[in-house]
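Hi P.,

Sorry for the delay on this. The queue was packed all week, but I finally got your sequence through. Input first:
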Amino acid sequence: MTTDLLTLSGVHTHIGAYHILHGVDLRVPRGQLTLLLGRNGAGKTTTLRTIMGLWRASAGRITLAGRDIGALDTPRIAGLGVAYVPENMGIFADLSVKENMLLAARSAQRLAQIDGDRLQWIFKLFPAVEKFWNHPAGKLSGGQKQMLAVARAIVEPRDLLIVDEPSKGLAPAIINNMIEAFGQLKASGVTILLVEQNFNFARRLGDTVAVMDNGRVVHAGAMKDLAEDEQLQRSLLGLAL
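Then the structure:
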C-alpha cells in the first residue's frame, strides 16, 4: 500500500483580511507525481506557499512523513528534504548558472564539494545547465531559466519537490524536455507535487490529481480517470481538455 509523504487536513489560510483557503484536504503519495489543477484564483499557489511556511495556515494540519510541520518556518521545512520552485523561478539573474547552483547546494561552499555524480545526472536531465554553466542566469531563455530553477532544487537529494507551473510560457519542444526530466525524477524516487495548467503535461506525468475551486479541493483521484472523462473535465475545469 502506498503511504502518503505529505498530507493537508482542513487547512485554512488567511492573507490579511482575505480568507483564501477554506479547509483544504490533500494527499501526496510517496514516490508519485501529484497534480494540483484548477482555474486561476482557485488557491493552488496559496496551497504551495502554505505548505512551505511562506504563509501560515490559520487552521488545520500539515504533516510531512507523519510530522506536523504547520508551525515550522521555511528554512526548517526545506531542511526536512523539501524543495520549492515558485512560479517566478526565483533565480539570481546577475549570478552565473554555476553560482546559482552553488548557492542552492547548502552543504557545499565550493564547487568541488557538490556531488559530482549528481551534477552529471542533472546535466543529463537539463543539458542547458551545463551548456550555459558560466553564463549569467538572467541571459537565459524562459525555458532555460525554468530548467535551472528545477536543477537548483534537486542539486542535493530531496524527498519532496514542489513546483508551481513548470510549463508556463514554454515552447512545446521545451515542454516535452521538461516532461521527460520530471519522468526521470519520479523514476529516481522523488515525490513530486506540481501545480500545472497544461493538461497534456499533467496527463502524461500525473499519477494522482487534486482539483481546486474557491479555496477547496473539490476532486481527488487517479489522473488517468480524469484524463479519460471529458464530462468530469468540463464539470471541474470548465472545458474538455
